Amino acid sequence: MTEPTFAALVSRWYTENARDLPWRAPGVSPWAVLVSEVMLQQTPVARVLPAYEAWLARWPVPAALAEASPAEAIRVWGRLGYPRRAVRLWECAVAIVERHGGKVPDRLEQLLALPGVGTYTARAVAAFAYGQRHPVVDTNVRRVVCRAVAGQPDAGPATRPADLVATEALLPEDPAAAALASAAFMELGAVVCTARSPLCHRCPVETICAWRASGQEAPAGPTRRPQRYAGTDRQVRGLLLGVLREATGPVPRQRLDAVWTDDVQRARALDGLVRDGLVEPVDADSYRLVGDGPSRPAVPLPALPG
DNA sequence: CAAGCGTGGCG
DNA sequence: TCGCCAAGCTT
Question: Does domain A233-289 have CATH number 1.10.10?
Answer without folding.
Answer: yes
